[in-house]
Design brief:
The chain has 268 residues and is of the alpha/beta class. The protein has helices at residues 22-29, 61-64, 80-83, 105-112, 115-122, 181-189, 216-222, 247-254; strands at 2-7, 39-43, 52-55, 70-74, 99-103, 126-130, 136-139, 142-149, 158-164, 169-173, 192-196, 229-233, 258-259, 265-267. The strands form two sheets. The chain has a seven-stranded mixed sheet. Strands 7-8-9-10-11-12-13 form a seven-stranded mixed sheet. The N and C termini lie close together (6 Å). Bound molecules: zinc ion (2 copies).
Protein backbone atom coordinates (compact mmCIF):
# COMPACT_ATOMS: atom_id res chain seq x y z
CA UNK A 1 0.00 0.00 0.00
CA UNK A 2 1.09 3.57 -0.61
CA UNK A 3 0.25 6.55 1.56
CA UNK A 4 0.24 9.89 -0.23
CA UNK A 5 0.36 13.19 1.63
CA UNK A 6 -2.27 15.65 0.35
CA UNK A 7 -1.64 18.54 2.70
CA UNK A 8 0.40 19.60 5.72
CA UNK A 9 -1.21 22.61 7.40
CA UNK A 10 -3.78 23.37 10.10
CA UNK A 11 -7.53 23.72 9.40
CA UNK A 12 -7.33 27.42 8.44
CA UNK A 13 -4.91 26.68 5.55
CA UNK A 14 -2.25 28.94 4.04
CA UNK A 15 -3.13 31.69 3.25
CA UNK A 16 -5.14 32.04 6.44
CA UNK A 17 -8.12 34.39 6.46
CA UNK A 18 -7.47 37.63 8.32
CA UNK A 19 -3.70 37.20 8.40
CA UNK A 20 -1.13 39.52 6.82
CA UNK A 21 2.01 37.62 7.85
CA UNK A 22 4.58 37.21 5.09
CA UNK A 23 3.79 33.47 4.68
CA UNK A 24 0.11 34.24 4.03
CA UNK A 25 0.81 37.31 1.87
CA UNK A 26 3.25 35.33 -0.28
CA UNK A 27 0.68 32.55 -0.70
CA UNK A 28 -1.90 35.08 -1.92
CA UNK A 29 0.54 36.43 -4.50
CA UNK A 30 1.91 33.10 -5.69
CA UNK A 31 -0.29 29.96 -5.83
CA UNK A 32 2.84 27.80 -5.53
CA UNK A 33 3.23 29.11 -1.99
CA UNK A 34 -0.24 27.94 -0.95
CA UNK A 35 -0.36 25.02 1.47
CA UNK A 36 -3.28 22.62 1.76
CA UNK A 37 -4.90 21.27 4.90
CA UNK A 38 -3.67 17.96 6.37
CA UNK A 39 -5.05 14.91 4.66
CA UNK A 40 -3.81 11.54 3.33
CA UNK A 41 -4.70 9.24 0.44
CA UNK A 42 -4.22 5.49 0.90
CA UNK A 43 -3.88 3.62 -2.37
CA UNK A 44 -2.95 0.28 -3.78
CA UNK A 45 0.13 -0.31 -5.87
CA UNK A 46 -1.73 -1.77 -8.86
CA UNK A 47 -2.71 0.77 -11.51
CA UNK A 48 -6.05 -0.34 -12.95
CA UNK A 49 -8.39 -1.27 -10.16
CA UNK A 50 -6.68 0.98 -7.64
CA UNK A 51 -8.44 1.11 -4.30
CA UNK A 52 -8.27 4.54 -2.70
CA UNK A 53 -9.24 5.76 0.73
CA UNK A 54 -9.11 9.34 1.80
CA UNK A 55 -8.30 10.31 5.37
CA UNK A 56 -10.24 13.51 6.09
CA UNK A 57 -12.10 15.64 3.57
CA UNK A 58 -10.72 19.18 3.79
CA UNK A 59 -12.06 22.40 2.24
CA UNK A 60 -9.02 22.14 -0.10
CA UNK A 61 -10.27 18.81 -1.49
CA UNK A 62 -10.69 20.12 -5.08
CA UNK A 63 -6.94 20.75 -5.25
CA UNK A 64 -6.03 17.55 -3.44
CA UNK A 65 -7.76 14.71 -5.33
CA UNK A 66 -9.41 14.20 -8.70
CA UNK A 67 -12.31 12.30 -7.09
CA UNK A 68 -11.86 9.18 -9.23
CA UNK A 69 -11.88 5.64 -7.85
CA UNK A 70 -12.58 6.69 -4.30
CA UNK A 71 -13.63 3.76 -2.13
CA UNK A 72 -14.21 5.58 1.13
CA UNK A 73 -13.33 8.40 3.48
CA UNK A 74 -12.15 7.95 7.07
CA UNK A 75 -12.70 10.96 9.33
CA UNK A 76 -10.44 11.82 12.26
CA UNK A 77 -13.07 14.17 13.74
CA UNK A 78 -15.75 16.71 12.92
CA UNK A 79 -13.92 20.03 12.88
CA UNK A 80 -14.55 21.94 9.63
CA UNK A 81 -11.00 21.57 8.33
CA UNK A 82 -11.36 17.79 8.42
CA UNK A 83 -14.88 17.18 7.15
CA UNK A 84 -16.28 20.15 5.21
CA UNK A 85 -14.75 18.82 1.97
CA UNK A 86 -17.51 16.19 2.03
CA UNK A 87 -19.82 18.90 0.66
CA UNK A 88 -18.09 18.61 -2.73
CA UNK A 89 -19.43 15.07 -3.11
CA UNK A 90 -22.97 16.48 -3.27
CA UNK A 91 -25.46 17.43 -5.96
CA UNK A 92 -23.89 20.79 -6.92
CA UNK A 93 -20.46 19.26 -7.41
CA UNK A 94 -19.42 15.64 -8.05
CA UNK A 95 -22.81 14.09 -7.16
CA UNK A 96 -21.16 10.85 -6.16
CA UNK A 97 -23.19 7.75 -5.37
CA UNK A 98 -23.07 5.99 -1.98
CA UNK A 99 -19.53 6.88 -0.97
CA UNK A 100 -18.79 5.21 2.38
CA UNK A 101 -17.70 7.67 5.07
CA UNK A 102 -16.29 6.02 8.19
CA UNK A 103 -16.62 7.81 11.53
CA UNK A 104 -17.13 7.07 15.22
CA UNK A 105 -20.68 7.01 16.61
CA UNK A 106 -20.38 10.51 18.09
CA UNK A 107 -18.98 11.97 14.87
CA UNK A 108 -21.66 10.17 12.88
CA UNK A 109 -24.39 11.72 15.07
CA UNK A 110 -22.76 15.11 14.62
CA UNK A 111 -22.83 14.70 10.82
CA UNK A 112 -26.48 13.57 10.89
CA UNK A 113 -27.47 16.78 12.72
CA UNK A 114 -25.61 19.02 10.29
CA UNK A 115 -28.10 20.05 7.59
CA UNK A 116 -25.74 20.49 4.62
CA UNK A 117 -24.14 17.09 5.33
CA UNK A 118 -27.52 15.54 6.15
CA UNK A 119 -28.65 16.53 2.66
CA UNK A 120 -25.83 14.39 1.19
CA UNK A 121 -26.85 11.49 3.41
CA UNK A 122 -30.54 11.78 2.44
CA UNK A 123 -29.62 11.87 -1.26
CA UNK A 124 -27.30 8.86 -0.73
CA UNK A 125 -24.28 10.71 -2.03
CA UNK A 126 -22.56 9.44 1.09
CA UNK A 127 -23.30 6.61 3.52
CA UNK A 128 -21.91 7.14 7.01
CA UNK A 129 -20.62 3.94 8.59
CA UNK A 130 -19.60 3.56 12.20
CA UNK A 131 -16.13 2.56 13.30
CA UNK A 132 -15.27 1.59 16.84
CA UNK A 133 -12.17 2.32 18.82
CA UNK A 134 -9.41 -0.20 18.00
CA UNK A 135 -11.64 -2.05 15.51
CA UNK A 136 -9.52 -3.22 12.57
CA UNK A 137 -10.83 -2.26 9.12
CA UNK A 138 -9.65 -4.45 6.26
CA UNK A 139 -8.39 -2.52 3.26
CA UNK A 140 -7.02 -4.21 0.19
CA UNK A 141 -3.29 -4.48 0.96
CA UNK A 142 -3.51 -3.66 4.64
CA UNK A 143 -5.56 -2.67 7.65
CA UNK A 144 -6.53 0.52 9.40
CA UNK A 145 -7.46 0.97 13.03
CA UNK A 146 -8.99 4.06 14.66
CA UNK A 147 -7.56 4.97 18.07
CA UNK A 148 -9.41 7.50 20.20
CA UNK A 149 -7.72 10.45 21.91
CA UNK A 150 -8.49 13.76 23.61
CA UNK A 151 -9.10 16.86 21.59
CA UNK A 152 -11.40 18.62 24.03
CA UNK A 153 -12.36 21.68 22.08
CA UNK A 154 -14.28 19.64 19.49
CA UNK A 155 -17.81 18.34 19.97
CA UNK A 156 -17.12 15.03 18.24
CA UNK A 157 -14.74 12.21 19.05
CA UNK A 158 -11.25 12.58 17.71
CA UNK A 159 -9.24 9.59 16.52
CA UNK A 160 -5.80 8.80 15.18
CA UNK A 161 -5.19 5.96 12.71
CA UNK A 162 -2.78 3.03 12.81
CA UNK A 163 -2.33 1.91 9.20
CA UNK A 164 -0.66 -1.45 8.58
CA UNK A 165 0.68 -2.36 5.16
CA UNK A 166 2.45 -5.56 4.13
CA UNK A 167 5.86 -4.25 5.18
CA UNK A 168 5.44 -1.29 7.45
CA UNK A 169 3.12 0.42 9.92
CA UNK A 170 2.27 4.11 9.69
CA UNK A 171 0.64 6.07 12.50
CA UNK A 172 -1.34 9.21 11.64
CA UNK A 173 -2.31 11.82 14.21
CA UNK A 174 -3.64 15.10 12.86
CA UNK A 175 -4.86 16.76 16.07
CA UNK A 176 -4.46 16.27 19.79
CA UNK A 177 -4.48 18.53 22.85
CA UNK A 178 -1.45 16.86 24.33
CA UNK A 179 1.00 14.06 23.79
CA UNK A 180 -0.32 11.40 26.18
CA UNK A 181 1.48 8.17 27.07
CA UNK A 182 -1.09 6.26 25.03
CA UNK A 183 -0.22 8.27 21.91
CA UNK A 184 3.51 7.86 22.50
CA UNK A 185 2.96 4.07 22.66
CA UNK A 186 1.26 4.20 19.26
CA UNK A 187 4.15 6.25 17.82
CA UNK A 188 6.63 3.70 19.18
CA UNK A 189 4.63 0.85 17.69
CA UNK A 190 4.89 2.33 14.17
CA UNK A 191 7.78 2.46 11.68
CA UNK A 192 6.63 5.87 10.44
CA UNK A 193 4.56 8.44 12.35
CA UNK A 194 3.01 11.57 10.86
CA UNK A 195 1.99 13.67 13.86
CA UNK A 196 0.37 16.93 14.90
CA UNK A 197 2.99 19.68 14.65
CA UNK A 198 0.57 22.64 14.75
CA UNK A 199 2.85 24.92 16.79
CA UNK A 200 6.58 25.26 17.20
CA UNK A 201 6.24 26.77 20.68
CA UNK A 202 3.57 27.94 23.13
CA UNK A 203 4.35 31.63 22.72
CA UNK A 204 3.68 31.51 18.98
CA UNK A 205 0.09 32.71 19.29
CA UNK A 206 -1.75 34.60 22.04
CA UNK A 207 -4.63 32.14 22.42
CA UNK A 208 -2.50 29.01 22.75
CA UNK A 209 -4.38 27.73 25.85
CA UNK A 210 -7.66 27.94 23.95
CA UNK A 211 -6.37 25.93 20.96
CA UNK A 212 -3.79 23.67 22.60
CA UNK A 213 -1.60 21.25 20.64
CA UNK A 214 1.74 19.65 21.59
CA UNK A 215 4.65 21.81 20.40
CA UNK A 216 7.32 20.62 17.99
CA UNK A 217 9.94 22.10 20.31
CA UNK A 218 8.90 19.76 23.13
CA UNK A 219 8.44 16.74 20.86
CA UNK A 220 11.93 16.87 19.34
CA UNK A 221 13.31 16.63 22.89
CA UNK A 222 10.92 13.94 24.04
CA UNK A 223 11.18 11.74 20.94
CA UNK A 224 14.91 12.00 20.32
CA UNK A 225 15.54 8.36 21.32
CA UNK A 226 12.66 6.75 19.42
CA UNK A 227 13.36 4.44 16.48
CA UNK A 228 10.23 5.60 14.62
CA UNK A 229 10.70 7.99 11.66
CA UNK A 230 8.73 11.05 12.76
CA UNK A 231 7.24 13.61 10.39
CA UNK A 232 5.19 16.66 11.40
CA UNK A 233 1.98 17.79 9.75
CA UNK A 234 -0.96 20.17 10.47
CA UNK A 235 1.42 23.15 10.90
CA UNK A 236 -0.19 26.49 11.67
CA UNK A 237 0.62 29.40 9.34
CA UNK A 238 2.46 30.96 12.31
CA UNK A 239 4.77 27.95 12.77
CA UNK A 240 8.32 28.98 11.79
CA UNK A 241 9.11 25.33 10.86
CA UNK A 242 6.71 25.71 7.93
CA UNK A 243 9.34 27.95 6.26
CA UNK A 244 11.83 25.67 4.61
CA UNK A 245 14.84 27.87 5.29
CA UNK A 246 14.04 28.80 8.86
CA UNK A 247 16.38 28.07 11.75
CA UNK A 248 13.61 26.03 13.40
CA UNK A 249 13.20 23.85 10.29
CA UNK A 250 16.95 23.22 10.16
CA UNK A 251 16.93 22.44 13.85
CA UNK A 252 14.28 19.74 13.58
CA UNK A 253 15.84 18.25 10.44
CA UNK A 254 19.30 18.13 11.95
CA UNK A 255 17.83 16.09 14.82
CA UNK A 256 16.33 13.52 12.42
CA UNK A 257 12.76 14.83 12.17
CA UNK A 258 10.91 16.05 9.09
CA UNK A 259 7.88 18.01 7.91
CA UNK A 260 5.67 16.27 5.30
CA UNK A 261 4.88 18.06 2.04
CA UNK A 262 2.06 17.57 -0.43
CA UNK A 263 3.06 14.80 -2.83
CA UNK A 264 5.24 12.87 -0.37
CA UNK A 265 4.62 9.15 -0.65
CA UNK A 266 5.30 6.36 1.81
CA UNK A 267 5.33 2.73 0.73
CA UNK A 268 4.19 0.55 3.60
ZN1 LIG B 1 -7.21 20.15 12.61
ZN1 LIG C 1 -0.36 34.04 8.36
Amino acid sequence: MKVEVLGNVQDGGVPHLGCDCDVCEKAREDPREQRYISSLLLKENSNDDTVRYLIDATPDIRQQIDGHYLDGVFLTHGQPGHMSGLLYFGKESMDISSLPVYATEKTRNFLMKNDPIRYLIDRENIVVKEVEDREEQLLQGGTLEARSLDHRHVNTDCVSFMIKGEDKTLFYLSDTDEMTEKIVESIEEADIAIVDGTFWSKDEIERYEEVKHPTIKSMIERFSDLDTDIYFTHLNHTNPALRENSEERHQLESRGFNVVRKGDEFEI
